[in-house]
């Protein structure tokens, strides 16, 4: 089994790796998997390759429409790679194409059709404007206007449904308890409505709606998440066991929180169920893409427009806490004399044990891999990055 950054898939080094395995007689599967799909509160998408030489590699593709069926789809490495991640042998025969990977979506209501395409364009425009804005109040205003415009459009296209939305969600346009997302990414004539609260009533509401509105040009369906239920960060923290010296070492300096860029950093709290990927640059490079910061809410809520006001309550995750999130056993210890910056580097460049151990059970113990397959992300569209000789994504993920 190999784990690497997702850009490795499209690199020359990976091509040489595939060729070497094929020459040695290995067969295998390639996948992109996110640690968050396995219940951990951290997004860490990585490329995985499972290979074996003895033959009989179980397929991770559970045939659609065949309950309990898992077809034997073995292949030899080194030939053309299908979008779904199976490595096929160039025999000249045309077989059944693997099912395209299902994009991981949060639970919500999926709208599809010509009317949904029009709304999708408005939703994408609003999200672009929000990303370009540095002011949180301005971002919230953009999304309020988006919800208001959507409610007006829904009242024209589906009047009865619009009335139900207003009833189920008090002050629907003003409420931040539901969101309009430009998902799935691969479907331009669709968008997703996600409900933070009143999810049960929202589900009943759309269950009563006609599945297809020919006049409106829209179809509605409920989407269940294929990911495992996320666990909160509090389960992985060691706040109570930190010494005063360790806590002081982890605190984010006031001088950093006073910098303009600090308003755009990722701050999470123990009750949260997601965080940004921790890389080998964590603690050294302050950016969303290098990992989230932990805000301990005991001293009051965090004002993201003035993070320096929360100095003393914002700290880095400890290397041990990150290892906990990655699934390392409690008995795994780093050398006591290793400097903090070096511990962050080796931890950020390590593996997601939760994912790797699941794959190893499929590979070695022949456990059912359908759950893994349901979590996979599409490999197509992953483009090479970086200069010649540099592994794609190396500067980005620190691996």
TrEMBL record:
Top EC class per UniProt? transferase
Q: What is its EC number?
A: 2.1.1.204
Tell me which Pfam families the record gives.
DNA_methylase (PF00145)
Gene Ontology MF terms in the entry = methyltransferase activity
Q: Which domain of life is it from?
A: Eukaryota
Disordered: region residues = 376-399
Which PROSITE patterns does this entry report, sorted A to Z?
C5_MTASE_2
Q: Which UniProt keywords apply?
A: Methyltransferase, S-adenosyl-L-methionine, Transferase
Any GO BP annotation: methylation
Q: Which InterPro entries match?
A: C5-MTase (IPR050750), C5_MeTfrase (IPR001525), C5_meth_CS (IPR031303), SAM-dependent_MTases_sf (IPR029063)
Name of the protein in question:
tRNA (cytosine(38)-C(5))-methyltransferase
Lineage from the top down? Eukaryota, Sar, Alveolata, Dinophyceae, Gonyaulacales
